[in-house]
Amino acid sequence: MDLGIAGKCALVCGASKGLGLGCAQALVHEGVNVLMVARGDDMLQAAAARMRADTQAVNPGGSVVCVAADITTVEGRARVFAQRAEFDIVITNAGGPPTGDFRDWDRDTWLRAVDANMLTPIELIKATVDGMAARGFGRIINITSSAVKAPIDILGLSNGARSGLTGFVAGLARSPLAASGVTLNNLLPGSFDTDRLKSNYSSVAEKTGKTLDAVYDARRQSIPAKRLGQPAEFGAICAFLCSQQAGYINGQNVLADGGAFPGTF
Question: Is the model's pTM score more than 0.90?
Answer without folding.
Answer: yes
